[in-house]
Specification:
342 residues; mainly beta; 4 domains; six-stranded antiparallel beta sheet; five-stranded antiparallel beta sheet
Amino acid sequence: MSGYIGSTPVPQATQHRESFTCTEGQTTFNTAGYTAQFVDVYLNGSHLSPADFTATNGSDVVLGVAASADDVCDIISYTPFEVAGATFTGTTTTDVSLTTGVLTANGGAVFNEGSADVDFRVESDNQTHALFVQGSDGFVGVNTASPTAPLHITAADNADLLRFTVSGQEVWAFKGASAAGSNDTVSFGIAGGTQAMAWDENGICTKPAQPAFLAKPASQQANLAVGSVVDIAFGTEVFDNNADFASSVFTAPVTGRYQLSFQLRADAIDSNANYYQFTLVTSNGSFTNIFAFGAATYYNPGSSILADMDAGDTAKVTFLQGSGTAQTDIDTESYFSGILVA
């Protein structure tokens, strides 16, 4: 005999059968337990419709029409098959798998070992392609569905593209930015702080925090003393990138090679002075120019040197007149500058 009379049991379930011999007028049958809506009831071999009985409390089945004496009532309950935990060995092949919980692979995982032209995609709460591996060429995209390079990262304007944290110390980041009317840039530096380096779309590189300064006198420094060293006062900062210049003195923030230069305008030159000495003084050494002016009334002495400086070393410009009258002035058209070059 082929076929099945009644509802076909769900294949992914376990079946429990109970058989009762009825008494006259019996309507209620107390079972060992069932899951509501997973019950079949047979009376004398005939499958009853769900409208002919009630099975809602998980234990009792109640007939709508009372049974007669010696009737046979068969009650079949089904328990859905659920895997609490499973271990698979060897190779397990599936066509489509959907995991709604947590998937843990203690032994590692290999995707697309057959080298098919298929994509791999990880979706986040707000990104459909938070991580994307393009099957055609293996390009990896972050927040992009169409990577055009081995690693292609897309981020919002002026947002960090890439971050590095080393041993819990400062976080370094690459950032991209664009602005109307100016070149697009990518920069590198402390995340959320001053960017150390920036490159624009023309390949021009700038270092906003690179030690560099230009200063000039705030007013004329008049009647410089004779016979003693006088510091030249540069009271106005034209610029000071890293705030390393103060009180006419430059202080090296790091050890390196610094290009230092000065150009002065000295007025009311004393023709009786046997020499004038202008010196660029650093902690590691001094660089002096000596002049004898004769009948000149003003002069523009200047000097430039690539100086070796250690972190904390200082540099300043001094004046020394060997003899004569204290009448020489340093005009405001004088400058002192420097920059870290290596």
